[in-house]
Specification:
With 425 residues, the chain is mainly beta. The protein has one domain: YVTN repeat-like/Quinoprotein amine dehydrogenase (Methylamine Dehydrogenase, Chain H). Helix content is 4%, strand content 38%. A 5-stranded mixed beta sheet has the order 1-2-31-30-29, with no helix packed on it. A hairpin with a 6-residue loop joins strand 18 and strand 19. It starts with 13 loop residues before the first strand and ends with a strand.
């Protein structure tokens, strides 16, 4: 394949008129990273090329995000139902103005239909189906929220990627770079100019990391895989885009031979992709080494690091996750959040720049494959306090993870209902 392929989130519900990867993939991710493979280190062949990172902060800094105080006084609203009907694990993505829903499963069959919800008009409309060449099992997706470019949806899976243009109601597709083909795609982020996609090998015996940048304006791929220590084979990865950098966490483990038979070594490499020099730099050797970094999200000046499960091959297992933390986007200094007031451990952590939203979930069941939404609380970043929020009536089964839009929490249920908390008049 050529180096550059062209791609041409009490009470009765009140009626109201006017995203990531799904929960199942997140559960599979956590199970995978807790089962650290005992294999020998493997070297990585890597290349580095320069993508263009965010220069206009407006692309990721929407105005007036809803606050914890506003959420605590808000009521749940029933928005119009999705025209796609019941399904589990669809892709949800928020552009800053609209909500995309594509894919998912129903009665075991992969669905390729899609729809868009416009909160300003209070209506849904169907969109063109996702092309068959784009694999939707284990796909990653990200919306490009306008600014210099009109909002579009990027979906990558299997051997191809698709870019949906809402103006033309058309998908364009292209094969993934050969370095990503066959890998488990783990993360996709939007920098303001590029989509960054990271993948790791599906085989624990042959660890591999590949990172590529798709330049929307030029419509071409570039490989930007960082060079990692040869004795740090990547088992899991997470990526976050801030205003001027891309942050990448590579969680590694390997078996070290010894006279007693061997021991497991593990850790977390953190890297930053610099705009002005176009290369990756390893950051903070003292970054916490024995916790999974997954679900991290950037807004305003802070990166939210959700509580992490243990990532440790040679230390005693710890059953409880670490506390949620903020990492400063420049210094990466960590500040722990107070424990949430929720009785059940929150499984959902979302961040919009003003408030952290934490929610508990029930376990999956046949009637609710992705669990049910339980208690919710919001942390006021500026007042340094938690506020307990109203529970959604009826504990509906989730279709996928909630979306924290700037001004409301959006919840899509298994039966296709769309619920909102915090919508402003």
């Amino acid at each position: 394949m050529p180096k550059d392929d062209h791609l041409p989130d009490d009470g009765q519900l009140a009626g109201a008129g006017p995203v990531q990867a799904g929960r199942r993939r997140r559960r599979q991710f956590v199970l995978a990273v807790l089962a650290i493979a005992a294999v020998t280190s493997a070297g990585l062949a890597v290349w580095a090329m320069q993508p263009t990172l965010i220069r206009d902060s407006c692309a990721c800094h929407p105005p007036y995000p809803v606050t914890a105080s506003e959420l605590s006084g808000a009521h749940w609203l029933a928005l119009p139902r999705s025209p796609l009907g019941p399904r589990s694990d669809p892709i949800l993505a928020w552009t800053g103005q609209q909500l995309f829903e594509v894919g998912g499963r129903w009665h075991g069959a992969v669905q390729r239909s899609g729809a868009v919800f416009d909160p300003s008009g209070g209506h849904w409309h169907r969109i063109a189906a996702v092309p068959g060449s784009v694999g939707l099992d284990g796909a990653v997706a990200v919306a490009t929220p306008g600014g210099r470019f009109r909002p579009q949806l990027f979906v990558a899976g299997g051997m191809a990627a698709g870019l949906y243009d809402p103006v033309a109601n058309r998908w364009t597709t292209a094969a993934l770079p050969r370095q990503l083909a066959g890998l488990r795609l783990a993360a996709a982020v939007w920098t303001g100019y590029d989509v960054i996609v990271a993948g790791i090998s599906k085989s624990a015996a042959r660890p591999k990391l590949a990172v590529a940048a798709y330049k929307v304006e030029a419509r071409r791929w570039r490989m930007i895989t960082p060079r990692l220590p040869a004795r740090h084979p990547t088992r899991a990865v997470w990526v976050v885009a801030t205003w001027h950098h891309v942050m990448l966490w590579s969680m590694w483990s390997r078996r070290a031979r010894s006279k007693s038979g061997g021991t497991m070594l593990s850790g977390v490499d953190m890297l930053r992709l610099h705009d002005h020099i176009g290369k990756w730099t390893r950051m903070r050797r003292y970054w916490p080494q024995h916790r999974v970094v997954e679900g991290a999200a950037f807004a305003d000046f802070q990166i939210l690091i959700p509580p992490g499960q243990p990532w440790c091959g040679g230390c005693p297992a710890r059953s409880s996750p670490s506390a949620a933390k903020f990492a400063d986007r420049r210094t990466l200094a960590l500040t722990a959040l107070p424990a949430s007031p929720l009785a059940a451990r929150p499984g959902v952590w979302l961040w919009n720049g003003n408030a952290v939203l934490a929610a508990s979930e029930s376990g999956s069941s046949r009637a609710a494959p992705d669990g049910r939404l339980g208690s919710l609380a919001a942390y006021d970043f500026y007042a340094h306090r938690w506020r307990v929020l109203r529970r959604v009536p009826g504990a509906p089964a989730l279709a996928t993870a909630p979306i924290f839009a700037e001004q409301q929490l959006l919840v899509l249920t298994l039966d296709g209902s769309l619920l909102s908390l915090g919508e402003r008049p």
